[in-house]
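Quick illustration, no need to memorize.
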Amino acid sequence: MTSQTTSDALDALTSQWEDALSELDPSSVSIIAQLLEGEATYGEVRMRVEESGAGWRVGVSTDARSNALPLVAGLLTSNGLDIHQADIFTIGAASRPTTPLLRRQPPRRPPPSDFGWRRRRRPRSQPATRGTQRRVAMLFDLSERSASIPGWDKIERDIRTAVRDSLSGRTESATSTVIDRFAEALRDAGQGGADQLPIDIFTDVESS
């Protein structure tokens, strides 16, 4: 990544989200710009992890059609991390689609929760063309709920697998990855898990 490509991504991001970006600190804006810089291949998942105070700041970006939000949030929490703040952005970015564009699904509301979701109003409209891929960037502020977490390599691998499965239409496989991690967490905590299942994972994002 070069300073020029990061600058181009920041310009594109600012053109669509200028008001919302003014609420974020420079470090957060930089992470989002780096996640969205350059061309993205179909199904590509990008992730950045940085220490932030006593916790972590994690950024994830991928194709906006992947239904990634509940998968990423579920995998973070099931691995012993508490989400204190989440910011979600979408942006139109040039790309070379390797498969036909999928039918767009209507947006839904974020799931109810006790942490601070900040909804972003829809950005300035962008013309939809075959050469344009809408990408989503998610930024999470986290703290460790347990004494230790499995390790970021494992968490990142699970996130990439689940998001790619979702984007490829393997919804059941993507959901199973999240449920398996919750079951492991319950077992490790000595709570068993048989009486905790089934677990439903859903997204409910209100149209803006």
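DSSP finds five helices and five strands in the chain.
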